[in-house]
## 1
Amino acid sequence: MNKKEIEELIKFVSKSGVSEVSLETDTVKITIKNAAPRVIEQVVTAAPMMQMQMPVQAAPAPAPVAAAPAPAVASALNDESKYITVKSPMIGTFYRASSPDKPNFVNVGDEIKAGQVVCIIEAMKLFNEIESEITGRIVKVLVDNSSPVEYDQPLFLVDPS
């Protein structure tokens, strides 16, 4: 095998994307290895769309807006404002129970007392029991089980009455 044939074999192996080729004859033994397999990446971009302007027509006069929805929104805000939020004291992973086969510490509608464990937050492989600082009834759980939580993130809404 001459130098030209070896060069052609090397070019063929690099173009084919094969990671290794071995060739053995009576007089020559050649192994060609690519350092890293070729990865072909395809990037697709969308062409910008042209906006077409519609002819301007005189718009009909707007209908009067009913004032009924505004009090409903205000009452919903007032409902939420009477609740106290239990917040995360640390960054970590939120768990509602001590293990998957155990019941949740608290559920919606449960009465809780100050000092009662309401959840666990795992931080750096340490499981920290989070205790309630207030007495009341759980109205809403704001975080899904096994979800990451941030410092001061709301976890529960509690009705103190």
Note: The mean pLDDT is 77.
## 2
Amino acid sequence: MGIIDTAIMICKYVSAPRRTGAVCPSSKFLARKMVSAIGRTPEECGAVVELGSGTGAITARLVEAGYADRSSLFCIEFDKKLCGILSKKFPHAAVLNGSAENIRSLVGEKSAGAISAIVSGLPLLSLPKECVRNIVKEVEDSLPSGGRFVQFTYNLARSPKAVGFSDKMRHVHAYRVYLNVPPARVDVFEKI
């Protein structure tokens, strides 16, 4: 991601820090770790949903890795302007404007049944608690057994349990990515 994406993120952060959550786009190192944590090749994987796509740092890596056609990559972004940017950058992905609280209705019932992984760039620590509860429930209800939820946080000490999943999800991996501003931890959860 370049200077333009960084400038966009800074402006978004200044105007709505709790909703944006980051001053800079995710680094290529964080994006690679997020995508590798899906744990399945594009050929083995069903649909992938990205929550909080922003300027597309993680989206770019999903596309490079082969998760990139309108029936297999869904990018959910709340900000309409960012959706416009994403649509131009990634014409083979389905860019959807809306809340991560509505994953299944946004991707459509037919596609919702094929979701294998959800990758999240959402600032869960700064969103309202009720919103986070709704997102967590929607993630749990959207994934099949064995489906993965990949989330990063800048709070390296935070317990993965702080996400708030029920016993339907188990924490399977945690990776630290120091080559990111700020450093991040990637948590991987799997539906039981």
Note: The radius of gyration is 15 Å.
## 3
Amino acid sequence: MSGLVLKLGPRERIMINGVVMENGDRRTRLNVLTPDANVLRLRDAIHPDEANTPVRRVAYIAQLVLAGEADPEEGRRQILRGIEQLSQVFQDADSRAHLAAATEAVAEGRFYQTLKALRGLLPRETRLLAVRPAS
């Protein structure tokens, strides 16, 4: 059997194709058989007030498209524009790999993979924003 396997804890919430679902009182294992289903664990979701840094803003747009709350074509344009801006800052090889993966995924309309690739930049962004230039 192929597909995505979700292991959910008690009361854990997920969104599949824009529909929010909550698990019951016990741990559950679900097999998502439909290819290209849009699945997002809500514990991993970026909340609107958390989209307050450059990487988080671009990732949030991917999340909105994934959730069916934004037009895919407009989202694609905004994400690609954001990735271009991020590439001006993230110039190390590993960050470039994340940006290339995000670009490829968005070009193919795979917004979950776009979100996943962009999330890989969050620790680097946190470190960069924590460094303050000397006055």
Note: The mean pLDDT is 91.
